[in-house]
Amino acid sequence: MKLKYIMASLLIGGCAFISSCKDDFTEINTNPTVVSKPDPRYLFTEH
Fold first, then answer.
1. Residue 21: its pLDDT value, please?
2. CA dihedral in degrees (22, 24, 28, 33; nearest 10)?
3. What is the pLDDT of residues 1-47, one digit of tens each?
4. Which residue of 11, 38, 45, 47 has the smallest Cβ count within 10 Å?
5. How many other β-carbons are positioned within 10 Å of the β-carbon of residue 36?
């Protein structure tokens, strides 16, 4: 009976692990307010 619960837990844990891995994680986890490529004209402007 205890083996049944262990196998069920491993199966559920394995399914959760496999479904949680995403290839586009770096695209999802980006800050939209950060400027990634600044325009050089605006870097050296006078105030």
1. 61
2. 160
3. 899 999 999 999 888 777 766 666 666 677 778 877 888 877 776 66
4. 47
5. 6
Q: Hunting for tokens 């995403």 — which residue is that?
A: 22
pTM value? Answer: 0.42
35's tokens: 């400027």
Comparing CA positions, the residue from 44, 45, 27 lying closest to residue 36 is 27
CA 26 remoteness from chain centre: 6
What is d(CA 7, CA 46) in angstroms, rounded to the nearest whole number?
A: 67
Q: What is the 3-class SS of the chain, one letter each residue?
A: CHHHHHHHHHHHHHHHHHHHCCCCHHHHCCCCCCCCCCCHHHHCCCC
